[in-house]
């Protein structure tokens, strides 16, 4: 490991806050417990893992639902001008699963090419949505 920390950062926490539930269209409270670990197995590879359990409450105080959400993110830099990122947000409670990839290439200073692939899957892992996006940014000589 050459003196570098394998686990760069880790958090365990809890919070209570007011929250707007976009899926159910109401404003209530949530209680959440979470665990987050950010690792760096090598100089060009980062692995981040977090998980949460969220209790959502109606404005009346009655429990609406309990959600379990896990996220895995992998970032790999094969060269200084290129990075690849995979993000896997999983919500088994709502039976929602996603797979997201991002490729970035800095072909000139302050100029980048991005290619993104996002896929959403629902119950029984059936494909719900898929999108591929390309973005090119270019800094003109000012």
How is the topology of this model organized?
Layout: E1 7-21, E2 26-42, E3 45-57, E4 63-79, E5 82-91, E6 96-108, E7 111-121, E8 127-137
Antiparallel strand pairs: 1-2, 2-3, 3-4, 4-5, 5-6, 6-7, 7-8
Provide structural commentary.
The protein is mainly beta and 142 residues long. The mean pLDDT is 88. The protein has strands at residues 7-21, 26-42, 45-57, 63-79, 82-91, 96-108, 111-121, 127-137. It has a single domain (7-137), classed as Porin, CATH 2.40.160.40.
What is the CATH architecture annotation?
A: Beta Barrel
Strand order of the largest sheet: 1-2-3-4-5-6-7-8
Structural class category: mainly beta
The average pLDDT score comes to: 88
First and last CA, distance: 44 Å
CATH homologous superfamily assignment: monomeric porin ompg
CATH topology descriptor = Porin
Poorly predicted residue ranges: none
Number of separate structural domains: 1
State the share of residues found in helices, binned by percent.
Answer: under 10%
N to C succession of SSEs? EEEEEEEE
Annotation keywords:
single chain; 142 residues; mainly beta; 0% helix; globular
Task: State the gist of this model.
The chain is an all-beta fold.
């Amino acid at each position: 490991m050459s003196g570098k920390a394998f686990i760069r950062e880790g958090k365990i926490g809890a919070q209570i806050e007011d929250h707007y539930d976009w899926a159910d269209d109401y404003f209530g409270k949530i209680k959440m417990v979470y665990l987050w670990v950010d690792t760096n197995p090598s100089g060009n590879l980062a692995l981040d893992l977090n998980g949460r359990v969220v209790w959502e409450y109606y404005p009346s105080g009655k429990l609406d639902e309990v959600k379990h959400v896990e996220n895995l993110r992998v970032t790999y830099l094969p060269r200084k001008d290129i990075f690849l990122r995979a993000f896997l947000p999983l919500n088994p409670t709502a039976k929602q699963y996603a797979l997201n990839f991002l490729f970035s290439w800095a072909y000139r200073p302050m100029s980048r090419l991005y290619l993104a692939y996002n896929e959403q899957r629902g119950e029984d892992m059936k494909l719900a949505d898929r999108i591929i996006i390309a973005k090119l940014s270019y800094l003109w000589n000012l």
